[in-house]
Design brief:
Helix content is 0%, strand content 67%. By secondary structure, the chain is mainly beta. It starts with a strand and ends with a strand. The relative contact order is 0.31.
Length: 78
Amino acid sequence: MTLEIISPQEVVFKGDADSVTLPGELGKFTVLKNHAPLISVLVEGSIAYRTPSGEENTYAIKGGLADIDNNVISVCIY
């Protein structure tokens, strides 16, 4: 699946990911391939994602929005 993390200043990450964990308003949730469509408000915390090569990364955010649809995760952060 494709992950895009975008801030007002830059594209933080755009590439393939096997799993993505996001800090949702009701708690952390993980997105895997073929996840149901979803739009979620994100709160302060960190985005954690694993690439197909097994590399694990995290990125701290203050908040934002996530849109999950057709194996594309678009995250707008601030």
